[in-house]
Amino acid sequence: MTEHPTLVLLHGLAGSGALWDGLDAAAQWDGPVVAPDLAGHGAAAPLERYSFGALAARVAADLDPDRPVAVLGHSLGGVVALALASGWFGIRVESVVALGVKLSWSPDELAKGRALGGKPPKVFETRAEAESWAGKLAGLPAGPAVEAGGGWRAAVDQRAFAVGRPDLPGLLAAARARVTLAAGEQDVMSPVEHLRTLVPNPVVLPGVGHNAHVEDPAAVAVLLEYLR
Q1: Coil, strand, or helix at residue 66?
Q2: 149: burial class by Cβ within 10 Å (0-12, 13-18, 19+)?
Q3: Alpha-carbon distance 119 to 4, whole Å?
Q4: How far apart are CA 91 and CA 86, in angstroms?
Q5: d(CA 8, CA 65)
Q6: SS3 of 99, please?
Q7: Which of 36, 67, 76, 107 lies at a C-alpha separation of 20 to 30 Å from 189?
Q8: Model confidence over 133-190: pLDDT tens digits?
Q9: Does the keyword Hydrolase apply (predicted)?
Q10: In angstroms, rounded to a whole number, what is the distance separating the alpha carbons of residues 22 and 140?
């Protein structure tokens, strides 16, 4: 009997695995489904140093090396998915969809990421304030928060913001899995025309922006077909 791959859902920077809840992937996928928190996000332990490889290694450590996987990653999670597709982490990746990966980074954007990564986290009196700040970091109305020092902070290790610019051409060249790039039609962080500089036919999701899996999970569900 054919072994159905494990579907791995990887969230973006400052998010958590819970952002995939609306997709209800378990009802649409024949194999197991996991949506882990990336290192330093949500309930996951932080890293000593953040790199795309280190994030991928942490994901791989919790997967069965004897079972194939299919990976749907959003933004930062899309880069981690492409890193896993290299085969360097001992996981048998069969297919990857990278959604909303940002290709173009200005020096100012990279400098802001390094600056934020070097600052201590903001601590707020109330959970609601922390969730609002976490949402701003993730580009969402609200994000996850945790208790910290008698108050609340965003549930993300801010050092992750200094991870830097991904080498998308290099990752695509190294991939040993079937890869699809996708973006929301209205995604200003990952415009479709940018993706077309790397692949001829990226998937365009109509009517959604950068956080397409939160804005309209049903629109993102079509991407599961590219992973089968």
Answers
A1: coil
A2: exposed
A3: 43
A4: 9
A5: 13
A6: strand
A7: 36
A8: 999 999 999 999 999 989 999 999 999 999 999 999 999 999 999 999 999 999 999 9
A9: yes
A10: 14
Question: Rounded to two decimals, what is the model's pTM?
Answer: 0.96
CA-to-CA distance for 81 and 64, rounded, in angstroms?
A: 16
Amino acid at 190: S
Residue in the structure block whose two tokens are 């209800």: 24
**H helices, E strands: number in the chain:** 8, 8
Residue 107 class from Cβ within 10 Å (0-12 exposed, 13-18 middle, 19+ buried)? exposed
CA distances to 7, 54, 55, 75, 118 from 60, in Å: 13, 10, 9, 18, 27
Residue listed under structure tokens 């997967």? 63
Identify the structural domains of the chain with CATH numbers, from first to last: 6-107+163-227 (3.40.50.1820), 122-154 (no CATH)
Give CA–CA dist 8/94, Å, rounded: 11
- Dist CA 121 CA 142 (whole Å): 16
